[in-house]
Design brief:
Length: 131
């Protein structure tokens, strides 16, 4: 680990975890709303595996948020895995299926910014979390 990464203040790490947890819960509520309103296939235009993945985030987002709130490393690890795969899935949906771009997809813009936040902060806060 780079030396200056070790000097991240604990209050900054805990604040970042709190912000990430809240945003994960916002995402979970969106996925849960889609799941309850439209079932396991909320997006008719997307393939079944993609719909199933997005529906599963109703559970995994909550799980990552709970781990982060409890100060557990698996929370940031799970959040990173979620953000990397969710970002890849959404970019695939936008470019590969909908033939759209980043400028036309405000949801993708927000997801990209959140993924950058989570993936960028992970090395700084991971040491402050318990195994």
């Amino acid at each position: 680990m780079i030396g200056w990464m070790r000097h991240t203040p604990r209050w900054a790490a805990l604040s970042a975890c709190g912000i990430a947890a809240v945003l994960l819960l916002v995402g979970a509520s969106a996925h849960l709303s889609d799941l309850l309103g439209h079932g396991l296939r909320p997006y008719d235009w997307a393939p079944g595996w993609l719909n199933l993945y997005w529906s599963s985030l109703a559970l995994f987002d909550v799980l990552a948020a709970v781990f982060l709130i409890r100060g557990r490393r698996r929370g940031i690890d799970l959040a990173c895995a979620i953000m990397a795969t969710d970002l890849a899935a959404n970019w695939y949906a936008a470019y590969g299926i909908q033939h759209s771009g980043l400028a036309a997809q405000p949801g993708l813009q927000r997801l990209t910014a959140f993924a950058a936040l989570v993936l960028g902060m992970a090395p700084f806060i991971r040491r402050h979390l318990t195994p």
